[in-house]
Write a structure and sequence with these properties.
- By secondary structure, this protein is mainly beta.
- It has a single domain, classed as Beta-grasp domain (Ubiquitin-like (UB roll)).
- The chain has one helix at residues 24-30; strands at 5-9, 15-19, 49-51, 54-56, 70-75.
- It has a five-stranded mixed β-sheet with strand order 2-1-5-3-4, with helices on one face.
- Strand 3 and strand 4 (54-56) form a beta hairpin.
- The relative contact order is 0.27.
């Protein structure tokens, strides 16, 4: 089965293209962005980003198609980090 390609719109107005299952951190790097990290196990929430209005933790989630061919990413602001 062929993986779906997704267009990702980043907060710095750059665009990257990824396949379903690709790594968030690598794609952010392609857009000249760095997603903050903490524990890298999903426990701390330092890496949280909003994707089409849904908050995810990219350290434990890969890029998912979810019937959307375009993803809009925003960085969350956490007062504890």
């Amino acid at each position: 089965m062929k993986k779906k390609q997704l267009k990702i719109n980043w907060p710095n107005n750059k665009v990257t293209f990824a396949l379903d299952g690709d790594d968030w951190f690598k794609n952010a790097s392609k857009a000249s962005l760095e997603i903050p990290t903490g524990c890298l196990t999903g426990s701390c929430g330092a890496c949280e980003i909003d994707v089409n209005g849904e908050t995810i933790r990219p350290c434990v989630n890969s890029i998912e198609y979810k019937n959307k061919s375009e993803l809009n990413v925003e960085f969350t602001s956490d007062p504890f980090w």
